[in-house]
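Key result, reporting period 2: structure in, sequence out.
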């Protein structure tokens, strides 16, 4: 009887360790993007809004890559944005102010990725994945406001991390900027002005992927 009493706690402890190990293993499983590889995403009318309410918009095209296999942990590499093109910049409707927007990718990107795309979390109950949240790090945009064609009001370089939420359910066909989160906020880091730049601003808009992606749990 004494031996049995000694063995019971040992058995319970062993069971607990096995359960914890199984839970950890599940938490550390990977995701697979299918097909992964090269991606192109287009936003018609990506908006940048200053705290005072001034909004300028531009059509933006991103090209880059999604990793085929992604570790299921916050901050894991999901992919990278290798090129960004902005055109058709425009100021508020009915205003004499026009706008130019230019993407600024660093010449010597840290960690070898111009704009890193990182994994945040998934939506749904495993193993059924219905959506994914990601962050584009160190995105930079150069904004120029011009009045009456010839008077340049300012030139402001903004940088920030941009959170994006996929459509649900998958497959992944679009990513919407998370306006309510601080990750959608860009801070001014350089300015050349006749008129001061706003200290920060928020992006809004939806990027549509030209090729759909699915995510599977490995």
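The corresponding designed sequence is given below.
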């Amino acid at each position: 009887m004494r031996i049995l009493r000694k063995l019971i706690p040992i058995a319970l402890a062993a069971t607990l360790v096995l359960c914890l190990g199984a839970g950890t293993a599940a938490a550390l499983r990977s995701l697979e993007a299918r097909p992964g590889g090269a991606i192109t995403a287009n936003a018609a009318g990506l908006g940048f809004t200053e705290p005072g309410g001034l909004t300028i918009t531009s059509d933006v095209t991103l090209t880059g890559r999604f990793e085929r296999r992604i570790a299921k942990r916050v901050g894991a590499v999901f992919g990278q944005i290798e090129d960004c093109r902005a055109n058709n910049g425009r100021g508020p409707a009915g205003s004499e102010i026009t706008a130019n927007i230019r993407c600024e990718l660093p010449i010597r990107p840290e960690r070898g990725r111009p704009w890193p795309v990182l994994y945040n979390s998934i939506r749904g109950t495993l193993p059924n994945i219905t959506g994914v949240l990601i962050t584009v790090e160190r995105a930079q945009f150069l904004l120029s406001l011009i009045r009456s064609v010839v008077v340049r009001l300012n030139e402001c370089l903004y940088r920030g991390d941009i959170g994006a939420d996929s459509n649900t359910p998958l497959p992944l066909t679009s990513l919407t900027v998370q306006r309510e989160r601080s990750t959608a906020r860009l801070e001014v880091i350089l300015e050349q002005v006749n008129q001061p730049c706003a200290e920060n601003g928020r992006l809004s808009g939806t990027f549509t992927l030209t090729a759909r992606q699915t995510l599977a749990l490995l």
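The chain is about 10% helix and 60% strand. Residues 30-217 form one domain. This case is discussed further under Risks and Mitigation.
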